[in-house]
Amino acid sequence: MKHSNTPQTRRGRGPARRIGRSLAFVLPVVLVLSGTLAVTRVNWSGSPSDPVLTAAETTTSTGTRRAAERAPQDVLRDKLLTELQEENPGVALTHLQEAVNERPSLAKHCTSIARALGQAAVRVYGPTRAQSYARPVCDTAFATGVAAAHR
Q1: Is-contact 121 84, C-beta < 8 A?
Q2: In angstroms, how far is CA 10 from the centroid of its own chain?
Q3: Which of 13, 27, 103, 127 could potentially form a cystine with 150 if both were Cys, beta carbons 3.0 to 4.6 Å apart?
Q4: What is the separation of C-alpha 39 from the centre of its chain, rounded to a whole number of angstroms?
Q5: Helix axes 72-86, 107-125, angle to 10 degrees
Q6: How far apart are CA 106 and CA 104, in angstroms?
């Protein structure tokens, strides 16, 4: 094999190679910065304060959006309060017990929901009739709610 001392022209030494090297350096920097900005732009708190997110949410129905934003125990409490007014406290207490049995995560809210049902029962039925619906759902929270509303 013979080596020559004459300079050979190398491919890729021109402007295209310089542009390629510049892009190889600049492109990852741009991607990292744009990704960081995208992550900081996301509203991680869950409350719709960003106009872009709010505009996207307005495409859903208002009732669905409100129900999705509310905690499950609040939705259950409101549903049971409506049942209490439309039917009677016994039906609402039965459904409360069923909901707690189906979703054990609601157990920690059972007492406050039953107390709210007891207070609402006094407003709708009066203290004596409301007390007649008392049963051991969530201990004696319903009766406690009746007694608290009667004072």
Answers
A1: yes
A2: 61
A3: 127
A4: 19
A5: 30
A6: 5
Cβ burial of 8 (10 Å; 0-12, 13-18, 19+) is: exposed
57 versus 1: which is more confidently predicted? 1
Provide the Cα torsion 97, 102, 108, 109; round to 10°: -60
Condensed to tens digits (0 to 9), the pLDDT of residues 84-128 reads: 999 999 999 999 999 999 999 998 999 999 999 999 999 999 999
| CB atoms near residue 53 (< 10 Å) | 14
